[in-house]
Amino acid sequence: MTHGTTKPPEPILLSAARISTFDGQRALTGASGFFFERDGRLYLVTSRHVLLDEPSRHFPDRIEIELHTDADNLAVSTGLSMLLYREGKSVWRDGIDSGGEIDVAVLEIDRTALPGQCVLQAYTPAHLPAAHDDIEVGAALLVVGFPLGFHDLLHHLPVVRQAVIASSYGLRFQGQGYFLTDARTHRGTSGAPVLMRDTTATAANQALPWKLLGVHSSRMDMASRDQALDEALGLNCAWYADILLTLTGPRPARD
């Protein structure tokens, strides 16, 4: 391909969103997220600690995401600001299970606030793996995100890192709701989708022929590691994506 040749981007690159967090007008951190659609509603998915992290005293009150507005010219984009609280209550949804808090959060996107020519791709419940799917340790994965905020500044697109499944998929690693991946990751990747190629994608999934396995959360390390002698493990936590069915479902009555 010559330098002057252009082509439409792979749809997978339009499924991820760069997230910037703010406290008022003060910029805080950068992270990754992706779009998920269910029953006509559109959601932004990311890690819970991107929206609230008490140990690090991270308390943003809004986020901004970058959206493409011209399918023929990806250099054209706009920002969408979304408040995280309304009348003192958080507007995102997160969850807990038998292992404790789950590091995944969803924030519904008001479709009326989207630009008229918004260009994005969203995963759906059809992209979640089925119980009978054969997903083995060592299987190849992709993590689509914005490590350290790095991305294509001209076309506003994320980058993709390769990964493999590093623990038995379907088992809760150490009783928690995640599995492990072996990949080189950085700050800013939190909230990125963890994907596996779907070789049997149905017609409904042809635009995004991927299985949505998880949501990248953080790197895993050992407190006992000698930082002078031992390299980092290079392992990461990815929360099982089926939590999205709970977080995008009907709200409990107590809400």
Automatic annotation (TrEMBL):
<dbReference type="GO" id="GO:0006508">
    <property type="term" value="P:proteolysis"/>
</dbReference>
<keyword id="KW-0645">Protease</keyword>
<protein>
    <submittedName>
        <fullName>Serine protease</fullName>
    </submittedName>
</protein>
<dbReference type="GO" id="GO:0008233">
    <property type="term" value="F:peptidase activity"/>
</dbReference>
<dbReference type="InterPro" id="IPR009003">
    <property type="entry name" value="Peptidase_S1_PA"/>
</dbReference>
<keyword id="KW-0378">Hydrolase</keyword>
<dbReference type="Pfam" id="PF13365">
    <property type="entry name" value="Trypsin_2"/>
</dbReference>
